[in-house]
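Tokens in:
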């Protein structure tokens, strides 16, 4: 791996994306590759005013967890103009964040290891707007285009396993739907899927093999 590359570790919450992205960064640096870790989720800037409006309109539900914490669930599909506007503004936020946090580092010759990427943002968007077809609109196709040159790996786990790991995941009413959407994305975009039921090191080695195989195919 001599040229700068973009490698994305994606998947539902609780599968160990951050741990694996950090391990991958460490492994590549150990090989003399100038790798850098980047967190790529929730870059709300242009979409912030709309999120505030949605809360005023009652389109954002605050779910109180048994631990005392909270989780926000959006129902933008109830007002179609809000859903359309949110999709466009979130795409703009994602494009700007990708340019600043990813493209600039790639231009500097660094291999970027992304903890989450546009695939995760797209899944969140589809949950918020209650869409299931990942290629059903111009905006969703644009999200996928942002990841055209990325080498992505989806880390997956069963809903039962994820619910045992964290309380907020256990109370996530959309967990099964999210896993379904990642499965659809993996097939549509030919993204390798690695289950996190092995040890951290086993998953790490499986990710390296998957990345190497994708690079070998060109």
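Residues out:
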């Amino acid at each position: 791996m001599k040229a700068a590359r973009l490698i994305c570790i994606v998947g539902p919450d609780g599968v160990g994306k951050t741990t694996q992205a950090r391990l991958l960064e460490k492994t590549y640096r150990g090989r003399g590759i100038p790798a850098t870790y980047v967190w790529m989720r929730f870059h709300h800037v242009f979409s912030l005013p709309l999120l505030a409006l949605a809360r005023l309109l009652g389109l954002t539900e605050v779910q109180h967890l048994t631990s005392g914490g909270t989780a926000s669930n959006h129902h933008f599909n109830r007002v179609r103009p809000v859903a359309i506007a949110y999709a466009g503004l979130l795409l703009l936020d994602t494009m700007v964040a990708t340019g600043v946090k990813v493209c600039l580092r790639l231009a500097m010759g660094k291999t970027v290891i992304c903890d989450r990427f546009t695939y995760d943002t797209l899944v969140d968007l589809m949950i918020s707007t209650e869409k299931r077809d990942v290629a059903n609109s111009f905006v969703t196709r644009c999200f996928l285009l942002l990841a055209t040159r990325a080498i992505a790996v989806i880390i997956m786990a069963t809903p039962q396993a994820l619910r045992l790991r964290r309380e907020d995941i256990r109370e996530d009413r959309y967990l099964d739907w999210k896993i379904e959407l990642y499965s659809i994305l993996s097939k549509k975009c030919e993204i390798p899927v690695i289950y996190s039921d092995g040890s951290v090191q086993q998953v790490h080695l499986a990710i390296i093999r998957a990345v190497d195989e994708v690079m070998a195919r060109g």
